[in-house]
Structure prediction request, 487 residues.
Amino acid sequence: MFLDREHSIAPAGYSRWRVPPAALAIHLAIGQAYAFSVFNLPLSTLVGIDKPAPADWKLSTIGWIFSTAIVFLGLSAFAFGRWLEDAGPRKAMFAAAVCFAGGFFVSALGAQLHQIWIIYLGYGVLGGIGLGLGYISPVSTLIKWFPDRPGMATGLAIMGFGGGAMIGSPLAVALMAHFKTASSMGVAETFLAMGALYFVFMMFGVFTVRLPAPGWAPDARKPEAGSAARARRTSPAPDVHVDEAFRTKQFWLLWAVLCLNVTAGIGVLGQASPMIQEMFSGKIGAPAAAGFVGLLSLANMAGRFGWSTCSDLIGRRATYMIFFVLGAILYALIPTTGRLGSVTWFVVFYAVILSMYGGGFATIPAYLRDLFGVMHVGAIHGRLLTAWSVAGVAGPVLVNYIREYQIAHGVAKANAYSVTMYIMAGLLIAGFVANYLVTPVDASHQWKGAAHG
Amino acid sequence: MGERVKVALAWLVVLIPAVWGVGQVVSKSAVLFK
Prediction:
């Protein structure tokens, strides 16, 4: 069958540079999830159209759609990672496309019938499973094609996830404007159109992706500049089975590294717009704040590619050391920029912090490959993503709770973020310690069976 | 079709929507520095 692993082996002469676009097609599509909030207001006026009617859904009810999707992203990455390694990237990407597009189609029905539970099942459960499958499916394939620069290769794909919102948000706005009528917000039609568009786009990835033939290696006759030194710093460890990796201290240290790095970034990412307006009250209005959020998205995306590529040169451990040391220093300096009224330094510091937040996501698959080998790196990555789910809840709760507590105790809004920034710096120092403790995996954990066992 | 042409076409398919999306963000971010 076309989708089977055996049928996706690359023929001789196939360029490995055709594989990153296949991975990007999947990640640019599923990255739309970060832009789901553009549907929040239209979904809250499906009945009333111009303003919310009593029968309309509350924003808090609608907010559960995205939360459900992120929970199922983590659960499916955890549950299906092992299957994905055996099934191969093409079948996994196809399953991701069917689930993600199917989620939109089911949600269109939910919007049309005005039944929120259908949207929870559609975009939340089905779409969320598509997110999880799509997120991890290209990772091990890229690592196999780019053994000489795994950080750059996986960084390219994961950069697509960061960039997906930049396409998904304006696309949804344009489609809703096109389909809107006097009696409809055009949400159901937009869901249908986006489901169809994303399915076609993801199928491009399904058709393009190939696995390298057994024994394939990058062209050794034309070594690239610095490749020997790079190989020494980033050579993969012997293979470790996913179930065995789960029992090593290295897995849990990396789990802590990812969780702490993400917690420190995700909390402020969600609060970026009100934060800059409150810290620079009178200077920064809503349009400029929206520009700030857009700039942070760009920094997040650029960091995914830039830092993961850098990790091929300086090593994974050193890259995370930079994240934690530089991140802690910048967080500690943020309140000073507020006191000095320096918008420029505030924006620059945050852009660097968010680049390291994205870099943390993008560099982790190569870090896993350095420690646990290539055999089950996709499945191990899937299990590690539970750290993201935990951070996704902990980060915003931490930032919101601390801010509200301070305001309730008489702290001015402009200063209410200072303690939060110092706590974020503390989290990054804890991440530094976890990363410092990462050592090579003991030989007793190595896989002794046949590959793909 | 040569392999290099196939590589270029594959990159075009994903870069066109990506560049469009980045352009949308950059045009909105310009407000911040006005």
